[in-house]
Amino acid sequence: MTVKWWRVVSWLISGLLIGGWLWQLPVQAKVTTPKVLLVYDSQNVAQQDQRKVAAVQRILTGIQVRVKTEVAADYQAGSLRHYQGVITMINWAQTDLNNTAFVRDRRRFNGMKLHIGPRLTADEAAGLHAKRANLYQQQFTLQNKNGYLHQLLAFSETMVALTQLPAKAQTIGYLKSQSADQRRYPYGTIVGKQGYLPYLSTGGYSFVLAAQTIATLFSQAGHYQPLLTITKVTPYTNMAVLERLSLKLYQRGIPFAISTTTVGNHAHFKAFQRFARVLRLVENRGGVVFLKMPAVGGVTTSSGPGLSTLIDNELIQFAQNQVYPVGISASAYWNQDVIYRQNALKKADHLLWLPNPASPVYAKQDNTATTFKQSFYGLDAASLETVTQGSTLGKVATDFPIPTAVTFTMPNSQRSLQNLMCRLDRLNYRWFNPATQGTPTKITSGTVSFGYQHGTYFLNGQATTITDTQPQPKKLAAVKMETTWVNRFFKTQGTVLLAFFSITFIVFVLFIVLGRRLYLNMFKR
User: Where exactly are the transmembrane stretches of this chain (predicted)?
Assistant: First the structure.
């Protein structure tokens, strides 16, 4: 018995020691991308508030949060249990949020909650442990905590501000009244798992603080230097101006990116060769290229293979001319369309999100955005420049809470180029350098793959150099159109019809020959 008890005790001691050792081992938690439901009352197109919905989508994608967007009227009871966060966005203060199922589910929801815009309800204010204050007919200055950075806002007819905040509340920016009392109200507010923004702007200091509030609420806030980006570059751009711009930026030691469209054929034309030559100069002067997605029209749910082939051919044309994009740039709505995501966007792991056009064209809209290795929010530089009253936001050399690309439209003349350089002088940012600060990029498309790491370009996994002269053509296989059952059906149908008409034609010719002989024999008798 003594031996048996000793064995039992030995096993227990060994188990405790092994268990203690395992307890001390570092546990690698599985990284999961949070999923958020964005619910809005109306796009309010008359006031162009659909841009605000797209801005929130871009912010969330930039901080690696998957977002599903849904109008409040379409919400189904119980849907919130599939999400880790919910954002209520009010664009039209004159209407009520007439969906009791959503209001009830939101009240019971234990995840992250954010309210943007007017009509903050009593239960939402209670969740923030604050009191509501209705403000009418006022103008505010948005400022940071110390007040040295500020921007005058447009006149506000009505706004719901918070007062009597708890000690644990996080305040991101303040709204200072222009009235005699000059009272300050919080702009971005976070209390525990709940947040509040009284309004949202798609640019300026308001955007910076709104993005910081959203990123902080979802524990994704960071410090990012902006990426200087030149947009609206095309093969028809004034190449002399683009070449001069790249040279000026190179001489000043400013890294930059360009967002450019291209063509899928006609690469043998001299105009395209000149375009490619200037893009090679851009790459050799510290610039990187984002391939801009094409304008679309007349697309359907069956347009995916054609779109994929188009992008593949554009990338192959670039590769044959030693132009190696580091990512894809697209309007925000492309991430809300399953056809565009699967057949174009997912070819790259670095995305640059630009504002939507006036009338987006969808192939199959599903409002379910995905995330990428890195996403940049395209922010118009004009919103960061001097305002009527306030700071030149670029002078203080602030960084951004999410990856941000400060965009300038491509100048079309020497005069507009000089104006762009003067605007750059008024900004004091330390610009993001993809060569030294960026993560490795990758684009996989058809028969070719691109990579970029530490300033070195990779083609199909092999490091490559870029020459200023016209490169020798590379033998890259063209991408064949994907064969679908519809294509096979029509191809088979065409073959059958061709055979049928061929046989019919032969029989018809035989009848003519026989008929002629019979006709002649009638006279020979």
Answer: 496-515
